[in-house]
Structure formats: structure tokens, C-alpha cells
Write a structure and sequence with these properties.
Blueprint: H1 2-8, E1 11-14, H2 15-18, E2 19-22, E3 36-39, E4 42-45, E5 58-60, E6 65-67, E7 77-79, E8 87-89, E9 94-98, H3 105-113, H4 115-124, H5 135-138, E10 142-145, H6 148-158, H7 161-188
Antiparallel strand pairs: 1-10, 2-9, 3-4, 5-8, 6-7, 6-9
């Protein structure tokens, strides 16, 4: 029953109707920003400095989804969270934002990385793993969108994942130190 209620509130939309691509470079201000990349784990510092035409690097600000068009098939997709430092990314990357009151960008990011998004990407791919999937190809895809308010509610819940992961990672690190602490206490007595 819940599935049918949720599906009845969803509308099928073409991705090019609900997303817009950031095409313009940052310009002469490029040196003020860190260079960011997209990995299987999401946002990461880029491995290389900007090349000859650094002014063409695209801005990636809070709420931006971006991906490496040569590596989208293996999940090199990133999202700039509220607490991430805005930056710039390669002019070869595809940089997207959801259109206002249509798609929440964080919700879209998690959808794109989900099995549903992966299926959409695979359906648009033409076979090769190293194939370039620019926005014009991704834009042909379709997405079932819940109403915008539902997306925003889900987005707020999804925003809590990063701090939870950080807290869990800290606890795991502390647990890793526990044997050393116990041994130190034994030898102190």
C-alpha cells in the first residue's frame, strides 16, 4: 500500500527538464579555490593542479553534483555538502544542479548513486567502460520524482549521513587504540 501511495505521488520526468548543467568556467579567480574531483567515495581533492587553461575550471559550490564523464559507469560522482569547502573541478567534468522547486540536488546525488541511478546510467551507456557520458546523454534519461517537499525531507535526513560516518569512524579509531591503552595500563602497574 505504501509503495502505491508513494508511486502515485511521483512524476516521470526527463533529466534535462529538472537539471541544469554548469558550463562556464570560474575565470581569473581560479587560484582562490581548491581543486576537487569525484571518486567512487564521493568528493575528494584532485590529484593534479589545473592545467594551462585554469580559468575554464568549473565552480563546484554547496549543493552541486558533479561527475567524471569517463568514470561515471564506475561511480565517480560527487556532491558538495553544506560543510564542504567550495572549489573548482576540471572543465572535462559534468557539473549539475537541480532546478529550483523541481529537484533537490542532494536527493538527486543519492538517487544517482543508488541502484536506480546506476540502472539509468547503464541504460544510456553504449557499452564501453571508458565511454564518455556527457550531460547531453545523461539528459536523455528519465527519473521518477517524488514531490519536491518529500525530496527536501529526505535530503535533510541524508545530510545526517556524513556526520554519522565521521562519528563512527572516530569510534572505530578509538577502538583500534584500545589494545595499546590496555597494554600500557598493564605495564604501568
Amino acid at each position: 500500500m505504501a509503495d502505491s501511495v508513494l508511486k502515485s505521488r511521483c512524476t516521470l520526468s526527463k533529466l534535462n527538464h529538472v537539471l541544469y548543467e554548469v558550463k562556464n568556467g570560474i575565470g581569473s579567480e581560479w587560484s582562490k579555490f581548491p581543486v576537487l574531483g569525484a571518486t567512487r567515495n564521493g568528493l575528494a581533492p584532485a590529484k593534479e593542479r589545473p592545467g594551462k587553461h585554469a580559468e575554464r575550471y568549473k565552480p563546484v559550490t554547496v549543493g552541486t553534483v558533479f561527475y567524471n564523464p569517463m568514470r561515471i559507469l564506475i561511480g565517480s560522482i560527487a556532491f558538495v555538502e553544506d560543510d564542504d569547502e567550495p572549489g573548482i573541478t576540471s572543465p572535462d567534468y559534468v557539473v549539475l544542479n537541480g532546478k529550483s522547486d523541481m529537484v533537490d540536488s542532494r536527493w538527486f546525488y543519492y538517487w544517482l548513486r543508488s541502484p536506480l541511478g546506476e540502472r539509468c546510467i547503464q541504460s544510456l551507456a553504449r557499452g564501453a567502460v571508458r565511454e564518455r557520458m556527457l550531460f547531453n546523454r545523461l539528459a536523455e534519461g528519465e527519473i521518477e520524482l517524488p514531490d519536491y517537499d518529500s525530496q527536501v525531507k529526505a535530503s535533510k535526513a541524508l545530510a545526517q549521513i556524513k556526520p554519522m560516518r565521521a562519528a563512527i569512524k572516530q569510534q572505530i579509531a578509538e577502538l583500534g587504540l584500545l589494545p595499546q591503552k590496555l597494554l600500557a595500563q598493564i605495564f604501568e602497574t
